[in-house]
Amino acid sequence: MNWQVGQIAILKKKKKNGFPKGREIGDSLEILRIQNSSTLIIKGSKRPGDSFKLDASFLEDVVEYRNRIIEEILTDE
Fold this sequence. Notes:
Layout: E1 8-11, E2 28-34, E3 39-43, E4 51-55, E5 59-61, H1 62-75
Antiparallel strand pairs: 1-2, 1-5, 2-3, 3-4
């Protein structure tokens, strides 16, 4: 996935030691910066300027997420 600054992503899995910064699976996260191809800087929610690092493997593009959910709903009969 080619992530972009300002893009919204969905948290798709948790870390071994729990959820990053109190987030839950399915939460929307905004990408502030791209550190490298696998590490993203995510906008925090505790105070202005708050951010945290997260491996890109924990995220799914919001459009891909919505399309997958719609497909699951339509094929689940």
